[in-house]
TrEMBL record:
Its cofactor is pyridoxal 5'-phosphate. Catalyzes the anaerobic formation of alpha-ketobutyrate and ammonia from threonine in a two-step reaction. The first step involved a dehydration of threonine and a production of enamine intermediates (aminocrotonate), which tautomerizes to its imine form (iminobutyrate). Both intermediates are unstable and short-lived. The second step is the nonenzymatic hydrolysis of the enamine/imine intermediates to form 2-ketobutyrate and free ammonia. In the low water environment of the cell, the second step is accelerated by RidA. InterPro entries: ACT-like_dom_sf, ACT_dom, ACT_ThrD-II-like, Ser/Thr_Dehydratase, Thr_deHydtase_catblc, TrpB-like_PALP, TrpB-like_PALP_sf. This is threonine ammonia-lyase. It comes from Myceligenerans xiligouense. Keywords: Lyase, Pyridoxal phosphate. Its EC number is 4.3.1.19. The lineage of its organism: Bacteria, Bacillati, Actinomycetota, Actinomycetes, Micrococcales. Belongs to the serine/threonine dehydratase family.
Length: 400
């Protein structure tokens, strides 16, 4: 695949997709030691980059194939992209999604006009069901990442980045099955080979490192991850070939870094992203200052997040950033004991947001009470100093 293939896809997408903006981030620039510019595909139609590849693939179907309809599988973003593209092109669409797919993604996919069936606990299981349906019904399978048209459509992001940030030095790309990073790498190999491309996977769903070591797509067991959009057990043959041939670097990031990245983009950039969409930012947070040549462009690949998941991820991010502390403290069950505990926390400069007493814990003596506290702190260092201050004042503290 070449940059010319991607330019042809860009012509197909002209007037269909949104040319998403880039936003400079002072906060990330200070952390990275280089200019950081966010590519905001979270503001794309249907909330992610996926509509680029979906529309490219569907628009190239023959009339006979369109009549047969299409079938797809997705955790949510590809589902919405296929549903939106199918609706624009007048094609009947059936989408398989995992049983625990986020409700907003389910309702949005149905809202775009697709039929949704829920099956399995992962994208890979949903994809197996979609393949069976394609064989049974004759529908055309629209793979989420393993097709040249899909890769070409996703690669159009790189063309926009080169126009918007012409001196770009590094692009950080969320990586699941590989369609997005492969499309970007294909463009840059021809148009700007000096630009460094780094794919970033969730450590708990990272199929590419082992596959690259093996020299072929290799299945990996998935652990639960908040980044459901990039939780893919096996790389696609088409994107894997491009990633391997172009020597794309792949890194992994922890759940803590994913949540911190999401929180930073939300709080400092005023941009809503899903955990998978924050993977590139998480990769930047994991790197040493100056490690990546600037300008650095993390791709915010999607912004479709369940509000309930957002609440949990934000809290996780606050804990990871040292700005939220949960404590279990034993105190004597006598007047003034709780006041002394509160005074110590106040003197340490922390803010109590929730207090809960328990006198029924089996580990307590008759004269003790257990106090569960949720406390706001200012940094990891401040969090440590609050705990130390409590222990210095004689409190038995467990950090939960």
């Amino acid at each position: 695949m070449s940059a010319d293939d991607v330019r042809e896809a860009a012509n197909l997408l002209d007037g269909v997709i949104t040319r998403t903006p880039v936003v400079e981030s002072r906060a990330l620039s200070q952390l990275a030691g280089a200019r950081v510019v966010l590519k905001c595909e979270n503001l794309q139609r249907a909330g992610s980059f996926k509509v680029r590849g979906a529309y490219t693939r569907l628009s190239r179907l023959t009339s006979e194939e369109r009549e047969r309809g299409v079938v797809a599988a997705s955790a949510g973003n590809h589902a919405q992209g296929v549903a939106l593209a199918a609706g624009m092109l007048g094609i009947d669409a059936l989408v398989f999604m995992p049983v625990d797919a986020p409700l907003p993604k389910l309702s949005a996919t149905r809202g775009y006009g697709a039929e949704v069936r829920q099956v399995g606990s992962s994208v890979d299981e949903a994809l197996s069901a979609a393949r069976v349906e394609a064989a049974r019904s004759g529908r055309i399978l629209i793979h989420p990442f393993d097709h040249a048209d899909i890769v070409a459509g996703q690669g159009t992001i790189a063309l926009e980045i080169l126009e918007q940030v012409p001196d770009v030095g590094t692009i950080l790309v969320p990586l699941g099955g590989g369609g997005l990073v492969a499309g970007i790498a294909a463009v840059l190999a021809d148009a700007a080979p000096h630009v460094r491309v780094v794919g970033v996977q969730a450590a708990q769903a990272a199929a590419y490192p082992g596959s690259l070591d093996a020299g072929r797509p290799t299945a990996v067991g998935l652990s639960p991850t908040m980044a459901d959009g990039i939780a893919i057990g096996t790389p696609g043959q088409v994107p894997f070939g491009i990633v391997a041939e172009r020597g794309v670097e792949v890194r992994t990031v922890s759940e803590d870094l994913l949540s911190r990245g999401l929180l930073l983009v939300l709080e400092r950039g005023k941009l809503m992203v899903e955990p998978a969409g924050a993977a590139g930012v998480a990769g930047l947070l994991a790197a040493a200052p100056g490690e990546f040549a600037g300008p650095i462009v993390p791709v915010l690949s999607g912004g479709n997040i369940d509000p309930l998941v957002l609440l949990r991820v934000v809290q996780h991010g606050l804990v990871a950033a040292g700005r939220y502390l949960q404590l279990r403290v034993r105190v004597q069950d006598r007047p003034g004991a709780l006041a002394a505990l509160v005074d110590t926390i106040a003197a340490a400069g922390a803010n109590i947001v929730q207090v809960e007493h328990s006198r029924t814990d089996v580990s307590l003596s008759v004269s003790e009470v257990l106090v569960n506290l949720q406390v706001e702190t200012k940094s990891a260092e401040h969090r440590t100093s609050v705990v130390e201050r409590l222990r210095q004042d004689g409190f038995a503290v467990d950090v939960t």
